Amino acid sequence: MPHESSEAGMQLHWHRRDLRADDNRALAAAAEDGPVCPVFVFDDAVLDHASPPRVAFMLDALLSLRTWYWERGGDLLLARGDPREVLPAIADALDAERVVWNKDYSGLARERDAAVRRALDDADVERASYHDAIIHEPGSITTNEGDHYSVYTYFWKKWRDRAKDDPFPAPDADALASPEPDDLPDVTLPSLPTLDDLGFEEPEASIPEAGPEPARDRLADFCEGDIYRYEERRDYPADECTSRLSADLKWGTIGVREVYDATDDAKAFADGEAEIESVEEFQSQLAWREFYAHVLNFNPEVVSENFKDYEHEIEWRSDPEALQAWKDGETGYPIVDAGMRQLREEGYVHNRVRMLVAAFLTKDLLVDWREGYDWFREKLVDHDTANDNGGWQWAASTGTDAQPYFRIFNPMTQGERYDPDAEYVKRYVPELRDADPEQIHDWPELADAERERIAPDYPAPIVDHAERRELAIETFEAARGDD
DNA sequence: TTGATATTAGT
DNA sequence: CTAATATCA
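^ inputs. structure came back:
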């Protein structure tokens, strides 16, 4: 053994998708053992899969995190390169005995982490990884037979009833190691790189403020009010009665135990059964996130393959023009177009609308869900492999939670039901601002002359929903092989 | 203990 | 229809 003990030796905490110091399991564990120096590595292999909105949010979060450490006499080391080389090099230069990090459950990250473990072993540096990103670790929630769940509801019941960890404490200032600048190896960066330094354009979308403080503000805001109306209003996109924590949970600018704790506190203040149920409905959304993390952990191939087996290949259509119209928010289905424009403008889409635009692409246009998933990955600030893949495959009827009736959304009915006053549509589709809500909901079925009169600049529908519905049913019946 | 069958529910 | 569980022979 190169080191007799890790009790007093310096340690590195490798930040990845946990851009916070509070409620951070690996960081807390390291700080208990001795001084710890935090480090973030700009990994080109990861940046290759990234996009401007996500990197912009990440850089803002890193600045907040670095400030947090500065204010306590520490520093967040920044480095660029392959973590297999960077981490052993920093450990060597600073004489660190151990590197710790929190586990990431996506397939690519797991491969990278295994390679980093081998590199550290070769360099005789100790390492440890911790379960942190979700409340209940993959493998900890199984059926009575010990299998992994593929239906959400049963998973939720077990998830809900299981005891949960409290948030972990942030390290004390005296547990933070601040290395001498002269000791730092060449791979470290003196300052935070810009988007341009990393080879990215400025994002088209406006990016929300990132970091632990704005994340906590969002959580506190939500728990003071909207969480009690969540069950009733969460599906109305104009209300935006949601937590808006998706990007924070993706980047770990807030810990999920802290989020759960805050919702449990809110539950204690609930006024009546309906408010309690509303809080539980939100907690159930946290469980969805964990359900999909488990699914991805045990089925890493779902990033590119259907979760559900069909007898024959699904005959997706190659329709570049329709795909482009969908991306541009020019399909002539108002609520679909509003959602796709929100995606471009904000790097975010309300969840109900995500399901709706995904159903439109995969069922009305019969375009492969992978095309939609790729576009979301490019544009969403909160893109998370597990959640987005789970959502897309659910909408495409290739995922978990198979249902007896075939899942096709009617975009007109959905608009009427969830955006009755067309407030959401008008917010993102200015061409329709002077139209009546009724005209907006019925837009695809109006006469051409009528459409020309109401909003000459807004497109006619690119497909006929009723026709495409039949076509989708035929396509999926053929794939099932039971026609 | 096992296997067949009923029950429940599906963002 | 299917998954998971409960029930019963």
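Residues 1-7 of chain A have pLDDT under 50 and may be disordered. Residues 151-154, 235, 284-285, 288, 351-352, 355, 394, 401-405 of chain A lie near DNA strand B (CB under 10 Å from a C1').
thumbs up if we can close this ticket
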